[in-house]
Amino acid sequence: MTEFQGAAAVSGGDLASDVTDETDPERRDPERARLRRLRGRARMTAQLACMTSDVPEAGTFRVELEGPSGTVEVAVVRDEDGALHAISDICSHGAVSLSDGEVEGCTVECWLHGSRFDLRTGEPLGPPAVRPVPVYPLTVDGERVLVDVDGAA
Ligand code: FES
After folding, report:
1. Rounded percentage of the chain residues whose pLDDT exceeds 90
2. Which of 42, 43, 89, 129 is 20 to 30 A from 149 via CA?
3. Are 80 and 127 found together in one domain?
């Protein structure tokens, strides 16, 4: 009680704002606090999709993740060089699963009509598909494969 009375007497005003100025990182360095919030938000959107061992060489692994508007069907694909990619599992030409297709180089082929999709860009490399499929940011953390379905390209 003694401290409160003394502080109030010295500041002559809002004790709460005086105390907050010294401890609140937002007020000390707003830009750093903003970046920290953005990094935290980015971490929250990456979800565990599978383990690296779930994805065969030059093969696929289908997984359902939670997106902002509901379930997102994702194909985690290992290309022929061993790199992992995450793309929409739904072909842009028809509602079939790309994870049932063949991997060749850095592409996956739709099993129904044969369009190939670039795993880095999602672009179709030949007809009949003309629209790209979404590509999702993927990170590997040890054995864990994390996919951000909110960050589609
Ligand atoms: S359904 Fe995939 S190319 Fe037609």
Report:
1. 67
2. 129
3. yes
**Together in a domain, 71 and 119:** yes
Q: Who lines ligand 1 at CB under 6 A?
A: 91, 93-94, 96, 110, 112-113, 115, 128-129
Residues 12 and 87 in one domain: no
Q: What is the pLDDT of residues 42-89, one digit of tens each?
A: 444 899 999 999 999 999 999 999 998 899 999 999 999 999 999 999
Domain assignment of residue 24, given as a range: 2-45
21 & 87 share domain = no
Q: Give yes or no: residues 19 and 29 share one domain.
A: yes
CA 77 to each of CA 14, 20, 61, 80, 141: distance values in angstroms, whole numbers, following the listed order: 58, 49, 6, 10, 16
pLDDT digits (tens, 9 = 90+) for 76-134: 999 999 999 999 999 999 999 999 999 999 999 999 999 999 999 999 999 999 999 99
* Distance between CA atoms of residues 145 and 34, nearest Å: 27
What confidence score (pLDDT) does residue 137 get?
Answer: 97
Residue in 74, 81, 75 with CA at minimum distance from that of residue 58: 81
**In ligand 1, which atom is closest to the CA atom of 114?**
3
Number of domains in the chain: 2
Ligand 1 atom nearest 94 alpha carbon: 1
Give the total residue count for the chain: 153
